[in-house]
Design goal:
Layout: H1 16-25, E1 30-31, H2 32-42, H3 51-63, E2 67-73, E3 79-85, H4 87-117
Antiparallel strand pairs: 1-3, 2-3
Helix pairs in contact: 1-2, 1-4
Length: 118
């Protein structure tokens, strides 16, 4: 996939990064760079996660016990923290997906109303 210009990249809505991190960790433990890379890949380069935002979100999720972290070695043998989804985090993911679907549906209805008004 060709790289996109910065103007083509979408900004994450507040709270959406937490959802994307939790969803990424369903696939198994990952270090921060791996989480950011997977979000970028799965969004087809629409989301480029800023590392500062990522690590603040991971710290917040760990404080809430939605993820746990332990030190390990990355694929290039560097010391890295690996994050794992906890049972509480899995329950939050389910709640956040329902909330996202509700919000996305409401936005779609509002945007669709434009067609019926024309």
């Amino acid at each position: 996939m060709p790289p996109r210009d910065d103007k083509d990249r979408a900004n994450l809505l507040q709270g959406t990064l937490d959802l994307l991190i939790l969803r990424t960790l369903v696939l198994g433990p990952r270090h921060g760079q791996g989480i950011a890379r997977l979000i970028q890949q799965q969004s087809e380069d629409v989301f480029l996660v800023d590392h500062g935002s990522l690590y603040l979100a991971l710290q917040r999720l760990e404080e809430r016990s939605w993820v746990s972290a332990k030190w390990g070695a990355s694929e290039n043998n560097r010391k890295a923290r690996f994050y794992t989804l906890t049972p509480t985090g899995r329950a939050q993911l389910t709640d956040k997906i329902s909330e996202w679907n509700r919000i996305a549906g409401a936005i779609a209805r509002i945007l669709g109303a434009e067609k019926s008004e024309a």
